[in-house]
Amino acid sequence: MLYTSEALEILIDKLSQLPSIGRKTAQRLALFIMKLPKEEVKSLAEALIAVKEKVKNCSICSNFTDEDPCLICSSPKRDPNTICVVEEPNDVIAIEKTNEYNGLYHVLGGSLSPLDGIGPEDLKIRELLQRINESTKEIILALNPNVEGEATTIYLSKLIKPLGVKVTRIARGIPVGGDLEFIDEATLSRAIEGRVQI
Ligand code: ZN
C-alpha cells in the first residue's frame, strides 16, 4: 500500500480501472475528490449509481435512454424511414452534433471481431433486420473506419441489400483507424453528406 489510508488506496484502484486513466491520473483525481465538499462527493457518487439504475437501452434502437422508447425514436420530427447504423451510443452523440442527420439510429453494440470472439449474434443485427420494412428508404452504415468496422459494413450490406433497401455508407476521407466519436464535426458532417450507395 502506497497511501496510509486504505479508503484512498481503494478509490485510486477503482479510478485507475477506468479507460485511459493511468495510476498517476487516478491519484490526481482521488486527491481532487478528497478536497471537494462532502455534498459534491455525495452527488458524484449518486450520479454514478443513477446511471446504473435509471439508464436502459431503448427497445427500438438500443441507444442509452431514461425513457423507452428514447427521445429520438419517439420524436415525430425525425424521419422514421432512414436508419443510421452505428457501433456505440457515443457515435449517436457525434452524429447528432453535426446537425446533418434527421433519421433514426440503430446501435449495434460493437463491431464484428472474430479475434475477440464477437460474432453477428453478439450484436443487435437481428433487431436491425426486424426494423426494416416496406417503408424503409435507406440504411446508412456509419461504422468506425477500421478493420472491424469495414468487415461489419460488408457483412450488413450483404444482409440488407437483398431486402430491396438502399444501403449507403458514410464517405471515406475520415481517418482510417479512428473512432467516429473523435472525428471533428465538420469532417463527420461531410462524410454523412457525401455518403455513397453500396
Ligand atoms: Zn431509440
Summarize the structure.
The protein is an alpha/beta fold and 198 residues long.
Question: Could you give the topology of this structure?
Answer:
Blueprint: H1 6-16, H2 23-35, H3 38-54, E1 56-57, E2 64-65, E3 79-86, H4 89-98, E4 103-107, H5 125-131, E5 138-141, H6 147-160, E6 166-169, H7 185-193, E7 196-197
Parallel strand pairs: 3-4, 3-5, 5-6
Antiparallel strand pairs: 1-2, 6-7
Helix pairs in contact: 1-2, 4-7
Description:
- By secondary structure, this protein is an alpha/beta fold.
- The chain has 2 domains: 8-54, RecR Domain 1 (Helicase, Ruva Protein, domain 3); 64-169, Dna Topoisomerase Vi A Subunit, Chain: A, domain 2 (3-Layer(aba) Sandwich), CATH 3.40.1360.10.
- 41% of the residues lie in helices and 14% in strands.
- Helix 4 (89-98) links the parallel strand 3 and strand 4 (103-107).
- Helix 1 crosses helix 2 (23-35) and helix 4 (89-98) packs across helix 7.
- It is elongated and about 65 Å long.
- The mean pLDDT is 91.
- The protein binds zinc ion.
